[in-house]
Amino acid sequence: MRRYLCDVCGYIYDERLGDPDGGIAPGTRLEDIPDDWVCPECGATKAAFILITDE
Amino acid sequence: MKQKVPVSDLRVGMYVELPLSWTEHNFLRSKFKLTSPDQIVAIRSHGLHEVTVDFARSDVPPPSAPQALGELEYVSHSDAIVDPKDAPPPPLWNPDTLVPVELREAVHDKRLAPEQKAQAVYRHSREMMLRMLDAPSAENIRASKEALGSVTDMILRDDQTARNLLRITAHDFYTYTHSVNVGIISLMLAKALFKDSDGHDMQELGAGFFLHDLGKVKVDAAVINKPARLDETEMRRMRIHPYQGYKLLRDADALTEECRIIVMEHHELMDGGGYPKRIKGDHIHIYGRICCIADVFDALTAERSYKKAMTPFDALTLMRDKMPNHFDRPLFNRFVELFR
Hints:
The complex is a heterodimer.
Chain A: E1 2-6, E2 12-14, E3 49-54
Antiparallel strand pairs in A: 1-2, 1-3
Chain B: E1 2-6, E2 15-17, E3 31-33, H1 37-45, E4 50-54, H2 68-71, H3 101-108, H4 114-134, H5 138-157, H6 159-168, H7 175-194, H8 202-210, H9 221-224, H10 232-238, H11 241-251, H12 257-265, H13 286-301, H14 312-322, H15 329-338
Antiparallel strand pairs in B: 1-4, 2-3, 2-4
């Protein structure tokens, strides 16, 4: 499971937790998230997310 | 029943008569009822020590009326005159109280000279934005939007007052001041660009400009109020405000989608170096491109504790020379013309 940092606002997408409010179930990999999903904090697109931990 | 009252004893609800001629003060009228503490501060700033209060027309009793002595214990607590620090917290704003009566009056007053009208509209628009940012509920957002529509109408209709508004934009570091400034400046540019076109809902557009920074209510106050440049971590916190504002407007069902986009895109830059979506050029809505120019201009001409205010001329020069790829060039050229 990986964690990604939103390079715009610092929000962390943790694959373990997903983004339930944004319709993303826990355990969803970033690459499997629909392309129209945006960072729940700042609205950045998926392209703004950078990998920070890979365990 | 008129009585001289020291300025330090003035309270909201008193009907004051200023000992100044109409041209010597910034109020709409020389006689009026005090409706906000700001007015008391403003009276004090005129250097007055005492003013006449007409208690027959006031909501509060005279401070030393003889018959009041025996009755004082029957006066309900809310009527008692209290020290400001013991005063109840400020009212929670709601759609009925949010829009200052003076704002409506000033917008519709046909006899006011453009200069006075601009001052009154400016001051009370700021007051309303302060209240709205203090209590940004869906219904308050909608109420402010409606009032901003009439301010927008006035800016579009009344060239002289609009030009005066542009001249008196004040520069402190408060979001509500900046909101009103950017609203006015953006609308002036939109007016110049769209005056011969009827394809734009200028009321919606105007409200979008005034509300562009609404999302700052979701940013930590310590970041918003920091009296210094923001570091990278703080900048990251700040960058949530366009999208958070967009969501507030969407959830309040306020403004059309294309006008919410002003809020969402006012920090995007033509070269893709903005945020949050990092979109480029024509992908940024023209309303967002307009607001971006006004936003940077107002930030540069504002004074901060860590930097001096720039003159409009210097700000425009810097925007042209140091930020050549940030703005839509034709829009920027029209913008410069506003200040000729």
